[in-house]
Amino acid sequence: MSEKFGYRGYIGSRPVRGTSYPHRVQNLVIRDYANRRKLPYKLSATEYAMSGCYMMLADVVTELPSLDGIILFSLFMLPQRPQRRREIYDRVLTEKCQLHAALEAMVLADKNDIEHFEETIEVAFTLPHAPMRSYYPKTGKIDEKDSFWKALNQTID
Amino acid sequence: MDFLQPQEKELSLSFIQKGYIIQPTEDRAALDRIQSQIATLAATFLGKEPPQNPTDFLNNIANSIGIAQLNDLRLHVISGLMETDWFRKAYFSCARSLLETLVGNELVMQRNLGLSVQLPHDDSSLLPLHSDVWGSECSPFEVVLWIPLVDCYRTKSMFVLPASLDRQWRDRMHEFADKGTESLFEAIEPEVEWLKVPYGNVVVFTPTIMHGNRVNQEATTRWTLNIRFKGVFTPYSDKRLGEYFSPISVRPVSRIGMKFQLPGGFNE
């Protein structure tokens, strides 16, 4: 069996929570994160652009026996389906690896960390359904038809 | 409709008028533990034993350190606090019910923290007049829990422009477009309030109001912490959930709602 070494980066070709990050920027964030934490970084795998496709992530998961872990550019690049995420957490922990999210500076190192990962993801996925889609725009106009904004405006001076 | 309790109404009205609330900490033991931890971290940085009297040690840190080392000390303390597993919970407990009254009971908390250490007469770490919402990716739905670790008063504290006045000056801000923020400060200076916050008290303020600090002209050093809170489901700006905030009190009904799925498999 090959020896474990290093953390494989994982970047994507789809927007993350509505924002597109150039591959170069994603790699910079991962490399900076790895340097700060003194994690040996291995060149990133790049996910395909097709919606719902996690083939490259599946490859990295297969590689786990020879890795110390994975560094995702962002937590929110994990699959949207909770069951799929659970399978990844299970594989990571079974292989005694760690799953890092560079942008959010979060680590899943044991099963107690799963709840923190999941709660953050679930809340983030719910935000588009919250008032004003949970975003306060500083440029452009606030949607004055937004029911929350209308109701709120009636209560302030 | 307003079903708030009389005490909540009073606090809310005061907060809307002034833009801040100062009150005694709700958990003195937690605050003392935080202060002691910070003094220990600072002492370690200086190669000293943990001090017997953290307040005196922090107040008089200028006897042991110069401006050149100040940022390294600050970063050392911040990093030590971030590695202290009880710190965030203890910080929240200092003002839990106040935050729940002003913001709500489903909260997110800033993942990092701000630490201000201002030596007497040091002009290297000033925060000029600003409102966080103008330029720092903040949402107006946030509040800051600001906690002093020593007595803070006059220039050893921060100034704020009370909310009722802030609204008037905000409307006139464009008049200073070519003059810069210093001239805006000079204009509002007679109306700003310097927060008098003895150790043992906390401040919650809305960062929408103008605030900042000046050179500390007092004899001792300012030490203050600041961490932001907001409602889990209220609008964020570019300080986002995950990178900047993390949920600390998601309630069971939200948990159920977030996981809920209607039965599927029906065909038209």
How does the SSE layout of this entry go?
The complex is a heterodimer of chains A (157) and B (268).
Chain A lengths: L6 E5 L11 H15 L3 E6 L8 H8 L6 E4 L9 H13 L3 E4 L4 E3 L4 H14 L20 H9 L2
Parallel strand pairs in A: 1-2, 1-3, 3-4
Antiparallel strand pairs in A: 4-5
Chain B lengths: L5 H13 L1 E5 L3 H18 L8 H6 L7 H16 L4 H7 L2 H7 L4 E4 L3 E5 L13 H4 L6 E7 L10 E2 L2 H10 L8 H8 L4 E2 L6 E5 L5 E2 L9 E10 L13 E3 L4 H8 L9
Antiparallel strand pairs in B: 1-7, 2-9, 2-10, 3-9, 4-7, 4-9, 5-6, 5-8
Protein name (chain A): Sporadic carbohydrate cluster protein, TIGR04323 family
InterPro entries (chain A): SpoChClust_LIC12192
Describe what is shown at a glance.
The complex is a heterodimer of chains A (157) and B (268). By secondary structure, chain A is α/β, with parallel strands linked by helices.
What are the key terms here?
heterodimer, A: 157 residues, alpha/beta, 5-stranded mixed β-sheet, 5 helices, 14% strand, B: 268 residues, alpha+beta, 7-stranded antiparallel β-sheet, 3-stranded antiparallel β-sheet, 10 strands, 17% strand, globular, Sporadic carbohydrate cluster protein, TIGR04323 family (chain A), SpoChClust_LIC12192 (chain A)
